[in-house]
């Protein structure tokens, strides 16, 4: 189900009002360009890293970049400046990860397993979404099959497993800070996304069937 109207921003100030007048399709293209630039910078860091596990970072982030570029445009996208800032922070932080040294080789298999599992989960979720994938909160159609039968945001659940695995494989204070910022923004972004989608009766019905957002029994 697609609603052909943008969700306006509340009248809070000049920046919010200016942002609310933006063309959703133009914002889509700007967002795609930003993700591509950050992904290219990550590829460069991975190419120069001495950590043998560094290429694992690219599996997840390359999927984000690819699906962002091929996604279906929509007019029903949030035009709240705060929503976009959260979406950018949640997406940009993992793309800024620095592939450092493998400091805990004894538990590296656990990190590899989490990265692989998380990538499988998010890949299945992305395949369910197909071209409905996006970064900023938007209604590109309600999905309720596949992994969406178990949690409302299986793709984010996959990201969580991947990010924990990456922290095990290349721990550093910088990476911890980046992931902390990213997941703080991710949770707020998730709530903003549901605030938009819940205006769709189909999504309201979906929320009634699937109780948990991210981790069954927890959140």
TrEMBL record:
Coiled coil: none annotated. GO terms for biological process: methylation. The chain crosses the membrane at residues 77-97, 103-125, 156-181. It is a multi-pass membrane protein. Keywords: Membrane, Methyltransferase, Transferase, Transmembrane, Transmembrane helix. The keyword rRNA-binding does not apply. The keyword Transferase applies. One of its GO terms (molecular function) is methyltransferase activity. Gene3D superfamilies: 1.20.120.1630. Its main location: membrane. GO terms for cellular component: endomembrane system. It is found in: Endomembrane system. This is Protein-S-isoprenylcysteine O-methyltransferase Ste14. It comes from Novosphingobium sediminicola. The lineage of its organism: Bacteria, Pseudomonadati, Pseudomonadota, Alphaproteobacteria, Sphingomonadales.
């Amino acid at each position: 189900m697609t609603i052909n109207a943008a969700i306006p921003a509340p009248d809070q100030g000049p920046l919010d009002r200016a942002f609310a007048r933006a063309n959703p399709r133009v914002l889509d293209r700007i967002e795609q360009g930003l993700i591509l630039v950050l992904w290219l910078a990550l590829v460069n860091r991975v190419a120069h890293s001495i950590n043998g596990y560094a290429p694992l970072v690219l599996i997840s982030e390359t999927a984000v970049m690819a699906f962002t570029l091929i996604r279906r445009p929509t007019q029903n996208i949030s035009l709240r400046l705060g929503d976009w800032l959260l979406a950018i922070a949640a997406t940009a932080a993992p793309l800024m990860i620095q592939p450092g040294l493998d400091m805990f080789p004894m538990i590296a298999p656990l990190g590899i397993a989490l990265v692989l599992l998380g990538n499988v989960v998010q890949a299945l979720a992305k395949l369910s979404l197909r071209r409905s994938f996006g970064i900023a909160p938007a209604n590109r159609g309600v999905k309720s099959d596949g992994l969406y039968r178990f949690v409302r945001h299986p793709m984010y659940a996959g990201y969580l497993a991947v990010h924990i695995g990456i922290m095990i494989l290349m721990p550093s204070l910088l990476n911890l800070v980046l992931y902390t910022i990213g997941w703080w923004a991710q949770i707020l972004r998730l709530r903003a996304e549901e605030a938009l989608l819940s205006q769709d009766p189909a999504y309201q019905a979906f929320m009634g069937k699937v109780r948990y957002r991210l981790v069954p029994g927890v959140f």
